[in-house]
Design goal:
Length: 92
Amino acid sequence: MSRKTILQSVRVGIVVGIFSAGFLCGSLTQHSANADWGELGGAVLKQAGESGGVAGSVVQLSTAITEMDKHVSGLQQNLDTLKKVKASLGGK
């Protein structure tokens, strides 16, 4: 092997070693992130909804869909309860 090939191999080895060490240290000290967007997100969406325009309309539509989804889920639970009661009473 020529001297140039050996030097290039050593350089690549050093770079791989530094990367591996950094990756190992980073993975050992990794912290998971938790964000609570409940209040902040609600305030931003409320402000955007009041601003009007396209963004306001989208926020209002999103809010309406979310509320409808909650109501539909509640109705579905009520229907499931009624079916259980009907089945326990001997109905078809």
